[in-house]
Specification:
Elements lengths: L11 H4 L3 H7 L4 E6 L2 E13 L27 E6 L3 E8 L6 E12 L1 H5 L15 H7 L19 E4 L9 E4 L14 E4 L19
Antiparallel strand pairs: 1-2, 1-6, 2-5, 2-8, 3-4, 4-5, 7-8
């Protein structure tokens, strides 16, 4: 059986590069989530880059902790974190081992297995909204902390794989500030997305939380 070119696994050296090279190059790639009910395929349409100790917006800015340990490598692994006590978000680790950089998957198009994701995303008004935003993406793919550290580059049995897909031409890639990032980290134009794609999430600037009196 011949594997179609777009379904070949991304090699580890794809991720073993600076995060600002990897992030826009992930647009158009595929994530395959294998579940007991069947596979789900997602085409990546929006990402954000996080550059570890060089980036105040990164979870690894202040060093290694049990929570962010996977970010320190090896590259090509999945980093999952839990946020606001409600949602999971999925990242792909990149850069040389020990650098703690990663790419947040912000949005994507479900190209296979939409019937499985609809069961988890009952509030989605249409299929374009199934993975429109990082928490929605993780929910649609049934990703939680149990998948933290998964190797997405392996050829063997694994719940998550990153495949070649169809890279987006540079002229179709847009960039701008990351969503909801405060302080010095908020100025970096490290959010990348596919121009005019309906699955891309809306930009929202950081809004400080008000303390209740």
């Amino acid at each position: 059986m011949i594997t179609p070119p777009d379904r070949t696994p991304l090699p580890r050296d794809f991720f073993d590069r600076p995060v600002l090279e990897v992030a826009p190059d992930l647009l158009g790639r595929l994530i395959i989530r294998t579940t007991p009910d069947g596979p789900i395929a997602l085409r990546i349409t929006e990402v954000e880059a996080y550059d570890g100790p060089n980036d105040p917006g990164s979870h690894a800015y202040r060093g290694r902790t049990p929570r962010n340990d996977v970010m320190f490598g090896p590259p090509g692994h999945v980093y999952v974190y839990f946020t606001y006590g409600m949602w999971h978000c999925m990242n792909l680790v990149c850069g040389p081992e020990g650098t703690a950089s990663g790419v947040l998957l912000r949005a994507g198009e479900i190209v296979e297995g939409a019937e499985l994701t609809r069961e988890r995303r009952l509030s989605a008004r249409n299929d374009k909204e199934l993975a429109k935003g990082p928490a929605r993406l993780a929910t649609a793919l049934d990703v939680d902390r149990s998948l933290d550290g998964t190797d997405a580059c392996t050829m063997g049995e694994t719940p998550i794989r990153a495949l070649t897909g169809t890279p987006v031409p540079p002229e179709q890639v847009r960039s701008g500030p990351r969503t909801g990032v405060a302080g010095d980290g908020g100025v970096h134009p490290w959010r990348f997305w596919v121009a005019d794609d309906p699955t891309v999430s809306p930009y929202r600037a950081h809004v400080p939380r008000r303390r209740s009196r």
